[in-house]
Design brief:
With 197 residues, this protein is of the alpha+beta class. The chain has helices at residues 30-49, 133-150, and strands at residues 4-5, 11-16, 53-58, 72-83, 86-96, 103-115, 128-129. The chain is built from two helices and seven strands. β4 and β5 (86-96) form a beta hairpin.
Length: 197
């Protein structure tokens, strides 16, 4: 299968931060940013695979700076590496203040997409060809992340907890004294029958 360069599938999405997506502090909702990241990354993944893709996973996302309502949100995404039927796509979010021209990086994330055949099964994807030094670095880092993800987890030894010793008189920890027997509930009426209605 012939590979495709990263530049052929790179995507960029721009959108104003609108009041409909504001939180109570006047910033863009984090969920809206995540939605835009998924859209931009899926566009890059579909451009590369030339078939439908689904989001398989998203790594953590740290919000470095708030995005104010009225600012321009820019999301850039590109395929970092292909792993047979899945691929890692890197996404970076920037905010531009159109009055001052200042552009700031606000978020970065890595998303994994799986390519699907017409019958909905995972299908093989052409390899991605990194050309620039940055693309080559991202290609190697994606492989390292994949290696770490797939490493079996080390078992955590079980440690028997020590019994709780509370010097305070905590009501929730006080010994339970037998209380008087509960009152019996009044008998329930029998369910109605066809003749009683």
């Amino acid at each position: 299968m012939e590979g495709r360069p990263v530049r052929e599938s790179a995507s960029e999405l721009s959108e104003f931060a609108l009041p409909i997506y504001a939180n109570t502090l006047g910033n863009l909702l984090g969920g809206r940013i995540m939605h835009l990241v998924d859209l931009a990354a899926a566009t890059a993944a579909m451009r590369h695979a030339r078939c439908p893709v689904v989001t398989a996973s998203v790594d953590h996302m740290t919000f470095l700076h708030p995005i104010r309502i009225g600012q321009l949100v820019i999301v850039k995404a590109s395929v970092n590496r292909v792993f047979r039927t899945s691929m890692e796509v890197g996404a970076k979010v920037f905010v531009e203040d159109l009055e001052t021209g200042v552009v700031r990086h606000t978020n970065s994330s890595y998303l994994t997409f799986v390519a699907l055949s017409p019958d909905g099964k995972p299908r093989e994807i052409p390899p991605v060809i990194p050309e620039t030094e940055t693309e080559k670095r991202r290609w190697h880092e994606a492989g390292e992340r994949r290696r770490v993800e797939r490493r079996p987890a080390e078992p955590v030894p079980y440690v028997e907890p020590e019994p709780h010793r509370c010097s305070l008189r905590c009501p929730s920890l006080a010994p339970v004294r037998p209380s008087r027997p509960p009152r019996s509930a009044p008998p329930l009426d029998p369910p109605p029958t066809a003749g009683s209605l």
